[in-house]
Design brief:
CATH architecture of the largest domain in chain A: Orthogonal Bundle
Shape of chain B: globular
Radius of gyration of chain B: 24 Å
Low-confidence stretches of chain B: 1-84
Structural class of chain A: mainly alpha
Number of domains of chain A: 2
Strand content of chain A: under 5%
Number of strands of chain A: 0
CATH topology of the domain at 340-578 in chain B: Dipeptide-binding Protein, domain 3
Chains: A mainly alpha (324), B alpha+beta (612), C mainly alpha (314)
Strand order of the largest sheet of chain B: 7-8-9-1-10
Oligomer: heterotrimer
Radius of gyration of chain A: 25 Å
Low-confidence stretches of chain A: 39-45
Shape of chain A: flat
Largest interface: A-B, 65 and 78 residues
């Protein structure tokens, strides 16, 4: 097992290198670059050629592609993620500044989704073909089909434009410097829409997984045995079934986490939340190569990491799986 | 005049009542020479003063003090919103929404629009007032030949500084700081981003703590735009300073507020400067600049009381904001006359950046002329911009040399005739062809600008009507404006039509230079910015003549000649001139608006106060 | 057999949450030979799926012939009709350029659906090919191809899509290729797994013994056995592709004006919905996306039931 894990980790390294090379080359091949910001369309800052040359030299933009890649990779190995062309700040600092925001919104949405999906999925499975199951399954089908950006737009129409209940943008009321309870209430008001949009969509798919996993377990022979032994239905479900259904569900959850992170870009765009997703979109517009590389690498790493976790969980579940 | 034109004239009359010349957002260039903006004044006179009695947002505001004779920006004239109750109240925080967060706040190191907000902290030596006349801020007086500030050969400028100015940390502001600022500019290890006026400086010398002598390499009309940002010498241990320096990000200044903290992507906190020269001011305890990157949602939040000010609104935002004001929402819209930048269609006259070969389609003057007649510009203003904006047909439309030249009228029949006569025949799909070349062109602008995409589609349809196909392919601004080395579309001549705003300059010298053949970008000249790749010896000669003298009348005549050639040859087509306007929450009072720059109200932040 | 996660479920999960790896471990098992003749009969039992199929067929018909039947041009500007709420003349209202929203929804739907179908074709072609080659050849080839699959799985999907489309430019072919090339991996694994487990089976040995070539064995004997899960994955993949394309357009990196797609229409509607309350601008395009995905999912569900013998007679 540990041999397997080590091998998978080692395999991840060339994969990350491969991804970084592909992305790096892609970034540099296309027209436009970070200095366009400096040249400032609109006529104000026609800065002199000499000033541009200084910046190009400083960013090392005149070196050949492979030199730039090797320099970037070399710095990375030494723990230096580079400096943003735009802000002049270390890339890692910039990313870390955004992580809490993204974690707050997506994490909260994920927790809400879990809190809803588990009970609904379990009850649905336990009372298969009941009215509740029927309603829950239908709702899940609807939820999966709803595009999150549409939902967000309609929420904004209803709760902000029409009812004027909830604020449209950001994560706090900029005009009031709240503290204590008022700050919590204010923060909650700002979080309601983005979190519900994300949570609603996640809940729908999670409910289906939970239900499916529970149904599978409930159909097993040993469950029938447990029932036959006279265990109360309640106990069968909570103790036996849930325990056995947990692993596949957790596997799915592990795979879901990087997606949530990546999916944050949409909800952050609509609600003007300055998280990782926005940082990525803005950096792509500015051609801020060091920041883009940093975010892509972290996102790839997350995907690989959680895949590995999922695989390990998965293999524990089914010993017949060969480690190849 | 048809109904549409009449409505437009009425609007102009209202704007004239506001009595204020304005400038879009950029005052870094400007000029020492003749700043009367005669064309605009003529317009004000022609329209008279609001006889129709319809109140407009602008007319209802007290900020409408005519700029003339109301004194200097520093004198406190032209204060808006003096309102019912007594004097300004102390305390409270104003909140500014910032749409595009810049990389640094120091304008010395950053040329993105957002760094202009640093004027809340960093004061320049001079600020141009509503008439475009520079008024001293940190300087004691504007250097002139009379007061000895300008030498007889115009090559030496002597700046006198005000006494008793201190940096916000209490250290005195002296001539040594200005000398140091230039040393930083000169150090090849430094990476400043400053206008070309700095390039013309030969040397900077402190004569005494309050006197600086600047020698120029050549006549430098931008001498009053120098020293917009002075660096505090005592805070640096080297003259090699780059974007990574903490004071590049959050500069130290002499202004009413000090930068306290910048949480990237979230907010920038400003506190009042305890060492500000006027102990009564600023009235506010501080200002929060909130990063709010989504324009549409930000405007909605502004209307819903979440912000006091949005940096910055454009013409396309005005319909929504004026409507909100009329509905009694707590926003105030201030319209200035005179307009701001013109939106242009840049036409590529070269074949893929090779100026020796004409563009297969746009190289034909008939195509350019037909396009000019084929665009329904008034519909852009009336139907898409809610009536805001104006028309101009002049290449030099702003500043002291402004020429009043009517826009080309919308005449699709004439456009069709021109094309028929030139041999462009309609093909099977109604798109014209000539010698096997299809009149099909790429049409690009910065992606994601919803208002622009609307009139882009209108222009596309206008062109389709005269048999020219436009294919919209919008891309990020960096793809369009990237340098030659970066393969930017404009610089490489890898485009057909690009739309962007430009040319709002007090002095036309730098603006005119972006059409002369000597700055066509190439491998040898990667910094060139004649993106139309236009070669016209006659035009170049006129521009050279205008640049070779300081005689204002002679310059103006030369520019007028250049403008005629420009209008005839059409290397770029003007669409409309943006309206100049600003908006703030009704609870925020004390703005002064008598600045040349419409965003100039930010200069008056010391006077701002909050009245709920 | 105690399989907690079935192949068919893998496919649906992968489709519901795009770019989902299923686990690198091999859990191939033979999909029993499908009884194609029974499939339709089984499918018909799933009433919702049947209704959904009808809805999709209707939608397909509407987007193909609809724009020609309506008296409006999807791109022609008419300021006289600008920003009108839904009415008899304009059942979905008009936009700020006075264009009829219904005709734009139909015209845009043509693009949205075409993209989705093309993406699935690309994804399935690449996925089946890679999976078949890897599974049939085995050994070094298999190993190399599976590493390739891993690399693609590890690409942060939406980020890479945004990046490539921003950089290369938003054209139909670009968008289809990028979306397609980032969603073939599940299919590849599915096909490979089946191939690996089938290639040593008696009927394959028999075919080999009578001298059948590789191509014949793959096409005649192996591929048909993988078709059921592939078809289900393809169907559900359409939903994912529609969603991704519209998200892309919504973020402003998709198709260019004046071309309508459902995602672009939503993006264009943002300002008027949020600032002017013109709900119809956003409501209808979103509703179309929603209905399409819903219908596609039901059809996929029905197909899975119909194609999966274990569920027969449930």
């Amino acid at each position: 097992m540990s041999h397997y894990v080590i091998r998978r980790v080692l395999q991840a390294i060339p994969m990350l290198i491969g991804i970084s090379v592909i992305v790096f080359v892609l970034l540099q091949m296309t027209p436009g670059g970070p200095l366009a910001v400096v040249e400032n369309p609109g006529g104000s800052g026609r800065v002199t050629q000499e000033q541009l040359e200084r910046l190009r030299a400083r960013y090392g933009l005149d070196d050949p592609l492979y030199v730039r890649y090797l320099r970037w990779a070399g710095d990375l190995v030494r723990g230096d993620w580079g400096t943003s062309f735009n802000t002049g700040q270390p890339v890692l600092t910039m990313i870390w500044e955004r992580v809490p925001t993204t974690l707050l919104v997506t994490g909260l949405a994920f927790l809400v989704a879990l809190a809803l999906a588990f009970p609904i999925g379990i009850v649905s499975a336990a009372r298969q073909y009941s009215l509740f199951d029927y309603l829950a399954t239908s709702a899940a089908f609807l939820g999966i089909a709803v595009p999150s950006f549409w939902l967000a737009l309609m929420f904004l129409y209803v709760f902000t434009f029409t009812l004027d209940w909830l604020p449209a943008v950001g994560l706090s009321d900029p005009r009031q410097q709240h503290d204590g309870l008022a700050a919590v209430v204010d923060r909650a008001q700002h979080l309601i829409m983005p979190v519900s949009v994300l949570a609603l969509v996640s809940t729908a798919s999670l409910t289906r997984y939970v239900r499916a996993a529970m149904l599978d377990v409930l159909g097993q022979d040993y469950m029938r045995t447990a029932r036959a032994k006279g265990l109360a239905e309640q106990a069968v479900i909570t103790v036996h079934a849930l325990k056995n259904a947990a692993i596949p569900i957790v596997t799915i959850l592990a795979l879901e986490i990087p997606d949530l992170f990546i999916g944050s870009v949409i909800v952050e765009s609509i609600f003007a939340i300055s998280g990782m997703g926005r940082l990525f979109v803005e950096s792509a517009d500015l051609r801020d190569y060091p920041v883009l590389m940093g975010i892509l690498l972290i996102a790839s790493f997350l995907v690989i990491l959680f895949n590995l976790i999922a695989d390990i969980l998965y293999s524990r579940l089914d010993p017949r799986i060969r480690y190849r | 005049m048809d109904a549409r034109g009449l409505g437009h004239a009425q609007r102009l009359a209202h704007l004239a009542m506001a009595g204020r010349l304005s400038r879009r957002e950029l005052l870094r260039r400007g000029a020492a020479l003749g700043l009367s903006a005669p064309a605009l004044m003529t317009l004000v006179a022609a329209c008279g003063g609001g006889e129709d009695g319809q109140p407009t947002p602008a007319a209802g505001n007290a900020g409408a003090t005519p700029g003339s004779g109301s004194g200097t920006p520093a004198s406190g004239a032209g204060t808006s919103g003096s309102g019912s109750s007594g004097g300004p109240k102390k305390g409270g925080r104003a909140v500014i929404a910032l749409i595009q967060e810049p990389g640094q706040m120091s304008e010395f190191f950053n040329s993105q629009s957002g760094s202009f907000l640093s004027v809340l902290v960093v004061e320049p030596l001079f600020i141009p007032d509503a008439n475009g006349e520079y008024q001293p801020v940190l300087a004691a007086a504007v250097p002139t030949i009379e007061n000895g500030g300008i030498s007889a050969d115009s090559l030496t400028i002597t700046y006198k500084l005000k006494e008793g100015i201190t940096w916000s940390d209490g250290e005195p502001f002296t001539a040594a700081d200005i000398v140091f600022t230039f040393e930083v500019y000169q150090n090849p290890e430094s990476t400043p981003l400053l206008p070309a006026a700095y390039d013309k400086i030969e040397s900077v010398r402190a004569i005494d703590p309050l006197t600086v002598e600047v020698k120029m390499k050549e006549i430098n009309p931008g001498y009053l735009d120098l020293w917009q940002t002075v660096l505090p010498k005592h805070k640096f241990d080297s003259t090699a300073v780059t974007q990574e320096h903490p004071l590049a990000r959050l500069p130290l200044g002499t202004g009413p507020f000090v930068f306290k903290e910048w949480k990237t992507g979230d907010q920038i906190i400003l506190e009042r400067n305890p060492n500000y020269r006027d102990p009564e001011k600023p009235y506010l305890d501080g200002i929060t600049i909130k990063v709010s990157p989504e324009k549409e949602a930000t405007i909605a939040a502004f209307i819903a009381r979440e912000y006091d000010y949005v940096y910055f609104i454009v013409t396309g935002d005005l319909p929504a904001l004026t409507q909100a004001e009329q509905e009694g929402k707590p926003v105030h819209v201030e319209l200035f006359d005179g307009g701001a930048s013109v939106e242009w269609l840049w036409l590529n006259l070269s074949d893929g950046g090779d100026p020796t070969k004409p563009h297969p389609v746009l190289g034909d003057p008939a195509i350019r002329e037909a396009m000019d007649y084929g665009i329904d510009r008034q519909a852009i203003i009336d139907e898409i911009l809610g009536g805001f904006g104006s028309l101009t047909g002049s290449f030099i439309y702003a500043g002291w040399a402004a020429l009043d030249r009517p826009a080309t009228p919308y005449d699709p029949d004439k456009a069709n005739e021109i094309l028929d006569a030139a041999g462009w025949q309609r093909g099977a799909d109604d798109i014209r062809e000539k010698n096997g070349v299809r009149a099909s062109l790429r049409f690009q602008t910065i992606a994601g600008d919803q208002t622009r995409e609307l009139y882009q589609q209108l222009i596309q349809q206008n062109m389709k009507d005269i048999g020219i196909e436009l294919r919209i392919e919008n891309v990020p601004s960096n793809t369009i404006f990237g340098s030659w080395q970066e393969g930017g579309l404009l610089a490489r001549g890898n485009y057909d039509i690009v739309m962007s705003r430009d040319g709002y300059e007090v002095d036309p010298a730098d603006w005119a230079a972006i059409f002369t053949a000597d700055s066509i970008p190439s491998e040898a000249n990667p910094g060139g910015f004649t993106y139309s790749h236009w070669r016209n010896a006659e035009f170049d000669a006129a521009i050279e003549e205008a640049g070779a003298t300081l005689d204002q009348e002679a310059r103006k005549r030369a520019y007028a000649r250049a403008a005629e050639i420009f209008a005839r040859e059409r290397p770029a087509l003007p669409l409309y001139q943006s309206a100049a306007a600003d908006a703030w929450s009704t609870r925020l009072k004390g703005q002064r608006t008598d600045y040349f720059n419409p965003r100039g109200t930010l200069y008056s932040a010391a006077d701002w106060y909050i009245e709920e | 057999m105690s399989k907690l996660v079935k192949h068919t479920d893998d496919a649906s999960l992968a489709a519901a949450l795009p770019l989902r790896p299923v686990g690198a471990a091999d859990l191939g098992h033979a999909a029993p030979r499908s009884r194609w003749s029974d499939t339709w009969r089984q499918f018909r039992r799933h009433r919702l799926a049947l209704v959904s199929l009808a809805v999709l067929a209707l939608m397909g018909l509407a987007v193909i012939v609809g724009p020609a039947l309506l008296p409006y041009d999807p791109e022609r500007i008419d300021f006289a009709a600008k920003s009108q709420p839904p009415s008899l003349a304009h059942p979905m209202g008009t936009d700020e350029l006075g264009r009829d929203q219904l005709v734009r929804v139909l015209d845009g739907g043509r693009i949205s659906l075409a993209v989705a179908l093309a993406v699935v074709v690309v994804a399935m072609t690449v996925g089946v090919t890679v999976g078949a080659v890897a599974g049939y050849a085995g050994g070094v080839v298999d190993n190399a191809l599976m590493r390739l699959v891993d690399v693609f799985y590890s690409m942060p999907g939406l980020f890479v899509i945004i990046l490539v489309v921003t950089l290369v430019g938003p054209r139909f072919a670009t968008i289809v290729l990028v979306l397609g090339l980032l969603r073939w991996m599940t299919t590849a694994r599915l096909v490979r797994g089946t191939f690996l487990s089938l290639r040593e089976k008696e009927f394959v040995e028999a075919a080999r013994a009578v001298g059948a070539g590789h191509a014949r064995i793959v096409v005649r004997h192996l591929l048909p056995n993988t078709m059921s899960p592939v078809i289900v994955a393809a169907t559900l993949g359409i939903a994912g592709a529609i969603l991704t394309e519209s998200a892309l357009s919504f973020l402003g990196v998709g198709f260019q004006p004046p071309q309508a797609t459902w995602g672009r229409m939503l993006q264009e509607a943002q300002r008027t919905v949020v600032n002017d309350g013109q709900w119809w601008r956003g409501f209808f395009p979103g509703l179309m996306i929603f209905l399409t995905i819903l219908a596609v999912n039901f059809v996929g569900d029905g197909l899975r039931d119909a194609l999966d013998p274990r569920r027969v007679g449930r």
